[in-house]
């Protein structure tokens, strides 16, 4: 049985895909098969909207605070299903909705994605990882290469226009204090919140 939904703390997470254009050196997938209350987040096939909604029957709406699109892959790889599920959840339960993303949505989908979030996605958390484009690529090893960092920055700037809360994150074991200060400056310039997240082994 595929785990399409799983709980972490008070939030419910949606696992739509195992696809990702990045191969981050610190990715949890290198060390574990699950996160939070899940057993395994590896999928044997990618679910459609109806499969995901069927999984919600196991999670009453009063049992979680926020819905988060984040699994063992980049959620915007399944943009159409993501937006369809988000729309249904908003209409049925009016829950806050967040996307945790690597910021490559525009490159993945070959279109401007953030305008599609307006009125639907409440928060976007983007993995900034490093303020230097070269070091960024060394860390995330994105298939889109040199243009990845600039695409992430542009995506973040657009998200600020269409969503209430935009956060950009780095992992605490991968940056120097000076690099963290530079990330903080970048976020301030964009209008995003900066958060340093703990690395989990």
Properties at a glance:
201 residues; seven-stranded mixed beta sheet; 7 strands
Can you describe what's shown?
- This protein is α/β, with parallel strands linked by helices.
- It is 32% helix and 16% strand.
- A 7-stranded mixed sheet has the order 1-2-3-4-5-6-7, with helices on one face.
- Strand 2, helix 1 (49-55) and strand 3 form a beta-alpha-beta unit.
- It is globular and about 45 Å long.
- It starts with a strand and ends with a strand.
- The model has no long low-confidence stretch (mean pLDDT 94).
The helicity comes to: 25-40%
Structural class assignment: alpha/beta
Q: Hey, roughly how much beta strand do the residues contain?
A: 15-25%
Order of helix and strand elements from N to C terminus: EEHEHEHEHHEHE
**Outline:** globular
The overall strand count is: 7
Strand order in space, largest sheet: 1-2-3-4-5-6-7
Task: Give the averaged pLDDT, no decimals.
Answer: 94
**Rounded radius of gyration (Å):** 16 Å
Question: What's the structural blueprint in terms of helices and strands?
Answer:
Elements: E1 5-8, E2 11-14, H1 49-55, E3 67-69, H2 79-93, E4 97-101, H3 105-109, E5 123-127, H4 133-140, H5 148-162, E6 165-171, H6 177-190, E7 193-197
Parallel strand pairs: 2-3, 3-4, 4-5, 5-6, 6-7
Antiparallel strand pairs: 1-2
């Amino acid at each position: 049985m595929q785990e399409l939904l799983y709980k972490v703390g008070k939030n419910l997470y949606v696992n739509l895909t195992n696809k990702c254009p990045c191969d981050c050196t610190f990715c949890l997938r290198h060390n574990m098969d699950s996160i939070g209350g899940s057993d395994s987040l590896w999928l044997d096939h990618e679910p459609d909207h109806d499969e995901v909604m069927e999984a919600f029957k196991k999670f009453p709406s009063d049992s979680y605070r926020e819905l988060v699109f984040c699994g063992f892959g980049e959620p915007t790889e399944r943009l159409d299903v993501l937006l369809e599920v988000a729309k249904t959840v908003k209409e049925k339960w009016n829950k806050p909705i967040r996307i945790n993303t690597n910021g490559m949505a525009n490159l993945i989908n070959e279109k401007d994605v953030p305008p599609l979030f307006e009125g639907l996605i409440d928060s976007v958390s983007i993995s900034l990882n490093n303020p230097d484009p070269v070091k960024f690529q060394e860390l995330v090893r994105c298939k889109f290469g040199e243009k990845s960092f600039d695409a992430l920055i542009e995506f973040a700037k657009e998200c600020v226009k269409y969503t209430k809360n935009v956060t950009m994150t780095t992992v605490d074991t991968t940056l120097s204090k000076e690099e963290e200060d530079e990330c903080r400056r970048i976020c301030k310039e964009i209008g995003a919140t900066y958060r340093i997240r703990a690395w989990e082994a």
